Queue: 2 jobs
Job 1
Amino acid sequence: MDIKFTKMQAYGNDYVYVNAIDQKIDNPNELARKVSDRHFGIGSDGLVLICESKRCDFRMRMFNPDGSEGEMCGNALRSLSKFVYYHHLTDKTHLTIETLGGDQVVDLFVENGDVVNISACIGEPVLESAKIPVATDEPQFIDKEVKILDKTFKMSSVSWGNPHTVVFVDDTDSFEVEKYGPAIEHYTDLFPKKTNVSFIQILDRNRIKMREWERGTGETIGCGTGCCSSAVIANILGLTDREVTVEQIGGPLKVLWDEEGKVHMTGPSYVVYEGVYYDK
């Protein structure tokens, strides 16, 4: 089976995007594992399907490299929105996108026919422990000490339909993400659905430095919802203002937590190349 695809990246967070409106995809979990392989496949942080929606303009389904389906991904959300405009599936610049993490709103900024920037409003952060979920009697899991392997960390959790845990470290550059990331992700006694992990360092009231360990993926050099989680938790703890720039390995993302409680992320996305994947 020949599958047309577009490879896109936002801050190095790269996915394979497939129009599933005009192409039938029978087993997306298996396809995600194949195309994500950086040696035997296309190579990506996962697979994103663009689907029809009964209540929104489009529906996004995203799959991790291990084949598991994720609820939400900020960079994929913004890239998908550029995809549908780029491929003339819509001429709208204000879009609603259905995801497992809820319905999202995206605005495209277009110059001379090209999408030059993308702002996604991903709604209000979910802070209730039971809804994230975090296995605790505390109503919110904010600034709690947790021992992981040989270290004790201050952790805070939030959800956008997908669980995120923010961990404060002294120096993100030297921190052993590959040691502690999977240990926290798989600490299911506390995080029953596992968790994405954002390791952050506060630079000043307007800047945060972050490295991200994504559930089902490993370390990625960009994560939109990780940036939003970091911005929200840092502001709750009084460490930053409501508008910050989050510096990732893949580049800086602007995040605003507005006075109505909604979170916006703004940044570009790029088409890398297009092709046909021969799925045997």
Job 2
Amino acid sequence: MPSAFFRVFGDFRGHSLISCADMVPKHFRGWFIIVVGLLSAGGLIYWALNRPPPIDKIAHQVGERLALKGREGVAPCTACHGANGEGNFTAGYPRLAGLHPGHIAKQLQDFARNPMEMGVVMDPIPRDYSKTPRIYSDLTVFTPGTRADPVMNPIARKLTQTEMRNLGIYFGNLPFTIDPQAIDFQTLERGADLALRGKPEYGMPACISCHGPEGGGFGPHFPPLVGQPPEYLIRQIDKWQTGERDNDHLALMQNIANRMTDGDKLNAMAYFSNRSLEKVK
């Protein structure tokens, strides 16, 4: 293929774009310019959409103070999540460092939200239909998001929306290092099959199809799996299965969790605890 390409278009290595265009046969020159233009525009759009936003320095400083020292009624985040937001593998507290700021803020909002009322009690319809009470409400199969946790619920309910955002900005911009855990080969092989292939025969996609290569996370809706305590991740899947957690994007994880066995949880999470990423920020 490369040799055929160079026979038609020439070898452009070491040439400027203008000289490359001159090397292209005239009947291909228009297409060459269009293709190069589209590739350049696509690259610029990708860069614009994926470049990290500038850090709000004031929000970062305020978030840092709250994370390290807490305030009246709110304990320091670092007491459980580590001095640098690295988490606590022994106690099963998750890593916050390097998570998407929007993801952190949303989780705090969901911890603070009271569970939605299930069901509506309606009065009997009177004979005079003009006096029938009308209830206007947005109907959706997806809840705004709730997370039940005896430690985080009371803390999150004392935070303001601004404080949640500030904490997200602070922790989301902390560097972190992942230390891979030693896992036996059989568990690793089974976990890799779930992480990389899923269980398509049961309608379960591969973990990396949403959580990114190596489970490194993708955007605010799909957090990283690598570098998190396996016990924490398994506990979250358990909560999706029991309904204690109901705040996943489009109910994706709830459906996936219901297709996972206890063995699936152990194997997949062990696999991600064995993965490693470069030091990221």
